[in-house]
Specification:
- The chain is mainly alpha-helical.
- The chain has 2 domains: 34 residues; 107 residues, Orthogonal Bundle (Cytochrome Bc1 Complex, Chain D, domain 2).
- The strands form 2 sheets. A two-stranded antiparallel sheet has the order 1-4.
- The longest helix has 32 residues.
- It is globular.
- It starts with a helix and ends with a helix.
- The structure holds heme C.
- The site of heme C has 27 residues, from helix 3, helix 4, helix 5, strand 1 and strand 2.
Length: 144
């Protein structure tokens, strides 16, 4: 019985801790975005499952084939433009840090939910050396 109580206390302490860490991360992110951004850690899983095959786990892409998302001014720039690219795909010429790409990225609308799109964009904007504010589900919903 004693052990059960001890285990319960430990689990409680761990849960409290995780919650504290999460809410402080959320607080600093929302101070930057000023609007309830989606979770970057949820976005990490979405990224690995859907994006890393082309853009690579380290966000460096493949020169000449898949543009880097790390250190990419478009990714860290206007959030609405990034949402539009991820939702609707992009087919044309993009130039990143002097290197041209003219591939096709399919649309993610209908494949990923708005929640997944918000969290994956929050992830790519805050990973590697990117330091841009996260995006919210409401912002993703606002882009058709
Ligand atoms: C099948 C390969 C592939 C996958 C998977 C993929 N992309 Fe892309 N992505 C591309 C290509 C190719 C481009 C450049 C398109 C062009 O040249 O017009 C691109 C462009 C982008 C851009 C715009 C970069 C810029 O500089 O304009 C963003 C942002 C982006 N992808 C995010 C994502 C995210 C987030 C995911 C996962 C949900 C993802 N991509 C999955 C191939 C892919």
């Amino acid at each position: 019985m004693k052990y059960a109580i001890a285990a319960f206390l430990i689990i409680g302490a761990l849960a409290g801790c995780a919650k504290g860490a999460q809410s402080s991360a959320a607080a600093s992110a929302s101070a930057a975005a000023a609007n309830n951004p989606a979770s970057a850690s949820d976005g990490g899983a979405v990224y690995v499952a859907n994006c890393s095959s082309c853009h690579q786990t380290n966000g460096q892409g493949v020169p000449g084939a898949f543009p880097p998302l790390a250190g990419n001014p478009v990714v860290a720039g206007n959030p609405i433009a990034v949402i539009a690219i991820v939702k609707n795909g992009i087919d044309g010429r993009v130039e990143v840090n002097g290197q041209a790409y003219s591939g096709i990225m399919p649309r993610w609308k209908g494949v990923l939910s708005d929640e997944q799109i918000a969290s994956v964009i929050t992830y790519i904007r805050s990973s590697w050396k990117n330091h841009a504010p996260g995006v919210s589900v409401a912002q993703v919903q606002s882009v058709k």
